[in-house]
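Student: Hello, beginner here. Can you help me understand the protein record under this note? Any guidance would be welcome.
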Amino acid sequence: MTPPEGAEAHFRALESLYAAAPINRFFESTLEIPESGVARIRFTVDARHFHAGGATHGTAYFKMLDDAAFYACNSMVTDRFLLTTQFSLLFTRPLPEGPVVAEGRWISGHRRVFVGDARLVDADGEEVARGTGTFMRSRIALAGLPGYRTR
C-alpha cells in the first residue's frame, strides 16, 4: 500500500498526534479527519465521566467539542499547531452512557486565527451540546511534536 501524501498525510499525522496525547488516557477516543475542515471524535461515555448528580460532567462535553473544532481547523494548517483562545458551550440535554460523536467543522480563517464549531451527538442521533471556538496559530511546529508522523 502506498503511504498517504499531501493533505491525506497531514490528516493521518493529526490523527496520530491526537492518539499520542496523554490526556486521551483519561478520555479514550478516536479522531478521524475525512476531509479538510472536518473532524470527528468517537468515544464512549461511562460512569467514570459522571458528576455527583449521576450525569456526564461538563469536562467531557468541553474536551470532545473543543478537540473536534480544533482538529477541523488544524486540518487547514500544515505547519503549525493551533491553540484554543476561546471556546463557548451550549448544553442542550443530558448526555447518557453510551457512544457519542463530536462533529467539528472549520468556519472561517486562513492565516492567523481560525473559527470552528462542533456538535455532540448521542447514540440516538440527538444533539446534546454545541460549541464554537477560536484557534490561533502558535509558534509550535507540528513536525516537532511527538506523535505527528507524516510517513
